[in-house]
Design brief:
Helix content of chain A: 55-70%
Radius of gyration of chain A: 30 Å
Largest interface: A-B, 28 and 31 residues
Structural class of chain B: alpha/beta
Structural class of chain A: alpha+beta
Number of helices of chain B: 7
Distance between the termini of chain A: 30 Å
Number of helices of chain A: 14
Distance between the termini of chain B: 27 Å
Strand content of chain A: 15-25%
Largest sheet of chain B: 6 strands, mixed
Largest sheet of chain A: 10 strands, mixed
Radius of gyration of chain B: 17 Å
Oligomer: heterodimer
Strand content of chain B: 25-35%
Strand order of the largest sheet of chain B: 6-7-8-3-9-10
Shape of chain A: elongated
Order of helices and strands of chain A: HHEHHEEHEEHEEEHEHEHHHHHH
Number of strands of chain B: 10
Amino acid sequence: MISRFQIAYKNLLRKKARTLLTLVGIMLSSWVLVSLLGFNRGYEQALNRDIDNMGYQLMVMAKGCPYEAATMMLQGGAGLRYIEPSMVAEIAGREEVEKITPILMQAFFDPDKGDGGGIAGYYGVEAASYPAMKPFLRFHQGGWFQGEEAGEAVMGYEAAELEQRVVGDMIMVPEKNVPLKVVGILERTGTQDDGTIFVPLKTLQKIAAIDKITTIGIKTRKDADSQKLETALYQLPDVQVVSFSQVKQTIMKLIATARVMVLSIAIIAILIAMVGVVNTVLMSVLERMQEIGILKTMGAMPGDIFFLVWCETLILCASGGVAGIGLALVFSRLSDLLVRRILPYAPGGELVDIDLKLALLTLAVVVVVGLLSGIYPAWKAGRVRPLESIRSEG
Amino acid sequence: MSAENVAALEARGLSRLYRRGSEEIRALDGVSLQIKRGEFVSFMGPSGSGKTTLVNLLGCLDNPSSGELHLAGRAIFGSGKNLDERALTRIRRELFGYVFQNFHLVPTLTVRENVALPLAFYRKPGTEGEVERLLGLLGMAHRMNHLPGQISGGEMQRVCIARALVNRPEILLADEPTGNLDSKRSVEIGEVLQELNREAGLTIVMVTHNPSLGRLGGRMIEIRDGKAYES
């Protein structure tokens, strides 16, 4: 016995090159679609993760462009303006504040970094308050510095890996030529912390000859009215408040246009692939009119022929879809790199996140759209009258 | 009336008109005939005489313009009623097996799969093992797993005959079954049909141009200008 599914499959083998080209079209479309859906989700997750890993929901900094400031914070850059450290005590007294930490961000040009040199990001943080703000940080080696004025440093995983440092090594602060002893190396976090070097706040202030800070990180109590706190903080002189939920919304809005554009391209790619499916299946039907007529003389009902042709579409779309999703999984790192090159701001971690659910969703979309495309050729094949096809033979 | 005496097929005044613009073409003109069970009848006649039109009507591939058709005592066409494609298909798959001049074997299916093809759409009870039995009967058992491209024209037509018979039809309709074969293969196919008629008692209605093939049947009917004449 032979099943209709086998018949459909073997029909597709008749014109191997045409079937293969159609499969490639569907495969590429599925690849693009699943990668974009993966990006849609992965980007937001990565951004949330970056923001959550900041450990605080609000940042207080000197007045300036808030987006520039937020981006600098997220990318490990340095603010150009400073605020008074006394502000920390003033804010800490508010009932909405659960934890607070002062930060001094400094960037030094390191001629040995990369090919033509690069910026080394240094964070001056308090040993007393900063680790409590980020309790999720784990150490690959060593631990936090012991004193607030110690000549010590804690390196992010990638910073240590790049410079091939281990605990106990001495590093030199670029431009300033101040030696620091590496006392800890953090585990990989997938965030900007990986590329940062943490130094005791007072030590960095001394190195940079600045007695101020750039930022105050604030973690609010769970039941606190953050809006009320933000309003109160705005009353402080010459400061601005950056709420990370707002930053997230702003960044998501900024990339929304890009997402819409790329999704449109994906939809166009899917439509082109589906036109290919219609073309392939319709051509195959038109070439087999007489044979379909013969099948009808054998007892095949219009519905049987419709189903047979639909099976061909299903096989094409399902195989192309699975292959495309497979490719997307194999090359997700490549997609990640491409997206990072295109976007103005890309959070750390995986940007293209494809899981089983998303893969199945994409496959379902491809198969459903494919089956819709197959309706016309299948309907046309189902309507073939045996007499007409037999008459046209020879 | 015993089962043997019931006509397998009976046509009464079958006519078929076609229109080409304002011109009316009478392809078949009031043909009446009766074919009994187990008969081997050949329709012969020049091209355009109406023999294929007649076979198409007898085989329920088309509706007549007028006249009646009875199959195994059951009225199929008559009183001006036309059957839709589904109804015709139901009759066809119950009663007929068809062999055409062109083989129309699926090139990517093996000989066995091609013969089993009708069973994918409709399967009469008791047809288990029929594919192998027929291929053995038609001397094609050794070619079962070959593709159509790997066998000769005569062998392809044997496969088509097996495919037509796999659902155990009452009547085999063969329209120019040797039209694409050389004389040696034509004789072979003729002998196969004759054997099926004699040994298995299969009713065969065949259209042919070939007089020697036409004589293989016990009865020859000449079709001329849309009318049937017993030879």
